[in-house]
């Protein structure tokens, strides 16, 4: 079958989803090669964190680069592709094999390898916005506070207890809600406006709607509208209130609470009193000051038909 995707490079994280990435890469390579021919697809497995950035940056001669893994590997591949000049920048496709899969939700990609490959074979490129924070690119989410603390807690907890998946996230979430509902003081300037001082429990800067493994924190965010959607949860929020807001945020029904502030912006400068727990596409970022800007329609991504 002829493919519109041209020559493809599949960059796969064998360690994604606790090691399932390796088998998923074999399955995806078989399915794609069966459809497009042996010659049209090269496959490379990442060997360490950060490796996918270099692999994508060096993707000479490919029309399409596919990232197989979780949001972390998509983040790295997108960052590498953005190091390439625009006229030699392949389109990005994703085969979601992660724990959170937030970008997959935003793009409408299936988390079943077989279905995702079928979607890719019929996909069309569409320009997507990317975010930039302190020199790093991100595809979906940047956030400070509670959800970032949960994400970071899972890493330590996974090592300590060996737990994975929903149980791991539920334990980390309950622990953070009960014991670490910290308000963090910040000063923020939106679109170059006058600085605004405030305190936040969670402060999310979204390209698409999804963060934290499927929470629709900014339910109306669009990944191609040239704007960030910002959601700031202000104190006071008690444990019961936070649990309710989190439960409702799963389906984006938390927006009416008076503690929630929403904005749409192109740039943001935010300074915290001390280093907050912070994540971009699920990866740790450590700083007290964050300069954030949107690059509209920066990268062609493959969207299911
Ligand atoms: N070969 C490798 N060995 C160990 N870690 C790797 C390797 N290649 C990449 N990584 C790192 O693994 C981390 C997680 O990757 P990824 O997001 O693909 O999977 P995940 O954690 O299962 O999914 P999610 O981000 O959705 O939770 C990233 O920080 C990435 O840099």
Automatic annotation (TrEMBL):
<dbReference type="InterPro" id="IPR045540">
    <property type="entry name" value="YegS/DAGK_C"/>
</dbReference>
<keyword id="KW-0547">Nucleotide-binding</keyword>
<keyword id="KW-0460">Magnesium</keyword>
<dbReference type="InterPro" id="IPR001206">
    <property type="entry name" value="Diacylglycerol_kinase_cat_dom"/>
</dbReference>
<dbReference type="InterPro" id="IPR005218">
    <property type="entry name" value="Diacylglycerol/lipid_kinase"/>
</dbReference>
<keyword id="KW-0443">Lipid metabolism</keyword>
<keyword id="KW-0594">Phospholipid biosynthesis</keyword>
<keyword id="KW-0067">ATP-binding</keyword>
<keyword id="KW-0808">Transferase</keyword>
<dbReference type="Pfam" id="PF00781">
    <property type="entry name" value="DAGK_cat"/>
</dbReference>
<keyword id="KW-0444">Lipid biosynthesis</keyword>
<dbReference type="InterPro" id="IPR017438">
    <property type="entry name" value="ATP-NAD_kinase_N"/>
</dbReference>
<dbReference type="GO" id="GO:0016301">
    <property type="term" value="F:kinase activity"/>
</dbReference>
<dbReference type="InterPro" id="IPR016064">
    <property type="entry name" value="NAD/diacylglycerol_kinase_sf"/>
</dbReference>
<feature type="domain" description="DAGKc">
    <location>
        <begin position="3"/>
        <end position="136"/>
    </location>
</feature>
<keyword id="KW-0418">Kinase</keyword>
<dbReference type="InterPro" id="IPR050187">
    <property type="entry name" value="Lipid_Phosphate_FormReg"/>
</dbReference>
<keyword id="KW-0479">Metal-binding</keyword>
<dbReference type="Pfam" id="PF19279">
    <property type="entry name" value="YegS_C"/>
</dbReference>
<keyword id="KW-1208">Phospholipid metabolism</keyword>
<protein>
    <submittedName>
        <fullName>Diacylglycerol kinase</fullName>
    </submittedName>
</protein>
<comment type="similarity">
    <text>Belongs to the diacylglycerol/lipid kinase family.</text>
</comment>
